[in-house]
Amino acid sequence: MMKNKYGKIAMDGLIFNNPTFMLVLGTCPTLGLISSASSAAGMGLTVVVILTLSNILISAFRKIIPNEVRIPAYIVIIATLVTLARMVMQKFIPDLYDSLGGFLALIVVNCIILGRAEAFANKHTVLESAVDGLSTGLGFTAALTIMGVVCEFLGSGSLFGAKIMDFSIGLFATPAGSFIIYGLSIALFTYVLGTITRYRRVKSLKLSRENLLDGGALAEASAPAAPAAAEIKEAE
Amino acid sequence: MTAKQFFKSKAFKCIVTLLAILLVCGVMLTICNALFFVSAEEKLQRAISKIYGEEVEYNIAEPDSSVTLTSSRVEEVYEITTYEGDYLLKVTGFEGYSGGTVTCWVLANVSDGVKIKKITIDSNVNQSFIWKVSDGALQTLVGKQDAAGFEKFDMDGIKTGASYSMGAISNAANGALEYVKAKYAAASAYLFRGAECAIVLQGGNA
């Protein structure tokens, strides 16, 4: 039961409520950074850390923070975490810090982080919020990295900075190209998810119909027995 | 509302909670800022290891404000003693994207005319797409000898996707070349001429 609950939260964050493909949140860094796979992955991993920590802190303080000032309180907590992340990255990962540029500071106003704080963390326990933050962040990272790989391959003919081919389409190295890839990815993801959901529904319907038929056969099998019993009774 | 009622009210609780959160966050950030502060010395060491891949010896030189540069500003100058004729300059190029700047480390050499040996990006202001400036684009500036030899946005056909940032970088490179030419090239030429004279004199004596 407990495992099921956390599994469901994790699957929601990763797939069924994927922040990029299903909720279409965090569009600004998505369009700005997916023309490079390494930048996209770096941004995603930074969001994982900040989202998990902010969910944990907001969930831990949810009973202390008055409802009227919850949004400013959340913003202060998130801004502090983002500033901390910037300091740590500037000190230990300067290359990634430089590559993310202004988008790193913009994580403060990322709708995914504030959205999860408001929709999930302030209503659930610390552990559940941590799982939600981690899975939602990983869902965001996976989406950004996949699109980053496609955009970089088409736009620059390289993968994670390594040159693969000389041919490239310049459009895909720009946010306009990223927008096209983003739209196509959403369409593909929704189609695949819809197909899987339909398949599972059909399977469960088939199963329930078979169960019904089995029940009907049993009923039919037991039906002649009833008159026989009546006959016995009449004979008595 | 009496003072007692105010202290028991929800408004007071809200103010106290927000102030407490602000205080805790402020203290934490202050401590972390002290812990993770990247000093100018550390930045210089990072630039040197990026450029040379090894530790080198250098002398610090004061930037000369009498050398006038229009689109850039020389922040720091180091004379590399390990490699003769090498000068490492930290230069800020203006007129970047959205009026911002790009600060670069430019390694110039004066042994065979003034030319750029290497250039790396240190920091930037308001350059959202600076990550698009690849090493390949920076390589187009290496080996250039004449500040007029490369103009803004003309990067040997390389399209970065960050034209304004690249413009600020080329301004920084131009500034470094102009500065080194004005400050060190003349002295260097004089030094080499002096050396030639010494050789001639030595030959004469022999």
**What general form of chain A does the structure show?**
flat
Q: Let me know the average pLDDT of chain B.
A: 79
Quantity of strands of chain A, as a count: 2
Strand content of chain B: 15-25%
Helical/strand content category of chain B: alpha+beta
Note the topology.
The complex is a heterodimer of chains A (236) and B (206).
Chain A: H1 2-16, H2 27-33, H3 37-60, H4 70-92, H5 94-100, H6 111-121, H7 126-156, E1 158-159, E2 162-163, H8 175-222, H9 225-235
Antiparallel strand pairs in A: 1-2
Helix pairs in contact in A: 1-7, 2-8, 3-4, 3-6, 3-7, 4-5, 4-6, 6-7, 7-8
Chain B: H1 3-8, H2 10-36, H3 40-52, E1 58-61, E2 72-80, E3 86-93, E4 101-109, E5 115-125, H4 135-139, H5 163-205
Antiparallel strand pairs in B: 1-2, 2-3, 3-4, 4-5
Structural write-up:
The complex is a heterodimer of chains A (236) and B (206). Chain A has 236 residues and is mostly helical. Chain A has helices spanning 2-16, 27-33, 37-60, 70-92, 94-100, 111-121, 126-156, 175-222, 225-235; strands at residues 158-159, 162-163. In chain A, helix 4 crosses helix 5 and helix 6 (111-121) runs antiparallel to helix 7 (126-156). In chain B, 46% of the residues lie in helices and 20% in strands. Chain B contains five helices and five strands. In chain B, strand 2 and strand 3 (86-93) form a beta hairpin. The N and C termini of chain B lie far apart (106 Å). Residues 189-206 of chain B have low confidence and may be disordered. Chains A and B meet through helix 4 and helix 5 of A and helix 2 and strand 5 of B.
Key terms for this structure?
heterodimer, A: 236 residues, mainly alpha, two-stranded antiparallel ribbon, 75% helix, B: 206 residues, alpha+beta, 5-stranded antiparallel beta sheet, 46% helix, elongated
